[in-house]
Fold:
Amino acid sequence: MKSAFQPIVSSSGELFGYEALLRIYNQDGLQLETEPFFSAGYMPSSDRINLDRLARVIHLRNFVRFVSKGSLFLNLTPIAALDAGGQQCGYNSLISKVKELGLSNDRIYFEILEHTCANDKLLVRSLQDMQQYGFRIAIDDYGVDASSEQRVRNVKPDIIKVDRSLLTDFMSGKPKELESVIHLAHELNAKVLIEGIESKSDFMMVKELGVEYMQGYYIGRPVQVNGLPCLFEPI
Structure:
């Protein structure tokens, strides 16, 4: 399990932070697909939760060692959030780890993945607890699967990360969904981050929309820690 970091910038092009992305390899050094490890039904819930926790620790350590600039975005599966919500020791362990590494809680954004959740009320309660400890919450891939308006209204995140499909629709003359989520963010006092910025035209279009943050290959591709130290150059 290794970390890759992808930059996130403000609309002015200044660095805001990095999303940590997991890279998994087998014993022969071949890279495996990441998603099945977190969503496959054949893996016991306890294993998925432990894998999720281990990934966070790896990302935190690598961020401090190799990056340590801006905010850090960590993916969090709903099932892991539910587990953390039922175990105070999970919070204590996370807080002590962040403190040990010299980070402040408000630099950490937990991205709730678009997976469905068996208990939405418990999920919201768990995320609210995390916010009370000073951590920030982001909804990942808005517009895909369970990352919906209802989840956003329930969670009231700090940032809504909008899936590229909404930007593609906007640029093809179907602006309703993207305009709606921007309005929703304003209503809830949340920031908007649009994913999938792949070209200068994407960048300029999103900049005109007045959203706060952007992420995508045009901004910078994910770079694995063995490819550091240069992760981001101003655009």
Observations:
- The chain has a mean pLDDT of 86.
